[in-house]
Amino acid sequence: MFRIGSLDIGFPVVQAALSGYSDLPMRRVARLQGAVYALNEVVLDQLVLTKGKKQRALIRVAADDHPVGGQLMGAEPASFALAADALVAAGYDCLDLNFGCPVRKVLGRCRGGFLLSQPATALAIVREVHAAVAGRCPLTVKMRRGMDDSPESEHYFFKILEGVFEIGVDAVTVHPRTVGQRYVGRSDWRFLARVKRHVGDRIVLGSGDLFSAEDCLRMIEQTRVDGVTVARGCIGNPWIFAEIRALLAGKPLPVPPTVAEQGITIRRHYDWAVETYGPLVAGKVMRKFGIKYSELHPMDRQVRDAFIAVAKPGDWQAVLDQWYDPAKAWPPGVRRTGPGHLIAAGAEDRGGPGAADATPEVRRED
Predict the structure, then answer these.
(1) Which residues contact 225 (CB under 8 A, 6 or more apart)?
(2) How confident is the model over 238-250, as pLDDT tens digits?
(3) Which residue, 4, 34, 251, 361, could crosslink 246 as a Cys pair with Cβ 3.0–4.6 Å?
């Protein structure tokens, strides 16, 4: 049975925190298909501490959204701890500290992956947060495998890794690309295996290049990590969780969802987006999800173009009525086995201040 501290999860596959994506509607859809533990998109400690309507919307936890993790990003130990306290008070079941984001603006503000170059500051943050939340909920840390491939960077990585476990962190998620790699190249699963051997019985989750159920099982088998976090591999493909469950149970891989089944899930996702954001905003929020959902449709290019063209609430319903009509004899649904038209959350530094100081764009990464 898979556990993170006092949190009994069972299913060793987590929906990762995805800036601009892993909101309440996406988490609900993931749970429909078998996910148990899901993380909210990363939020800045300063935004959590700024009282007002935006803050309440950022940290709100719905009654049906458990267990849920809150991921924090920041630079100062004291504000990190205060924000962590606020998230626990809001009802989050676990806290995750982001020491891995490679976005330039984030690094420039001494946040995210930058902290991997500052072991003393990183460990001070963990100590402060642990003191603020110890005994109230589990605490985890998300890391990349260092700033770059230098021996100094690797030394810092393991110094932080050992230090966070000594402080009392319950689990660490490791993405085996460096911060310098950003969104280019394959992740180094051999490094994950080294990390797991190094820490022994302590809980390590793996991340990186997980685009299919087979990928997830292969990472667990090859690296011996305790679980995995699925990131962009589950955007527009929540069925990956049901597929992993089947393989873990020794069953055959389920057939891909039919167009009608896809339509049912997408409509529920859209309805939850309307409930969360209102009808005028929901269509804009859902467009990026529609692009990813389209990859499972046998007429993927036409469906993708239709979602991109959505401009008002009625347009969204028209796309669903035309392209997901259950009365039509559609060809079989498509199984996604690779990255597709990947959208890397937090890949570019455009726009004003947001949850992760970044706006998503198309990139190659998980």
Answers:
(1) 174, 192, 196, 204, 205, 206, 219
(2) 999 999 999 999 9
(3) 251
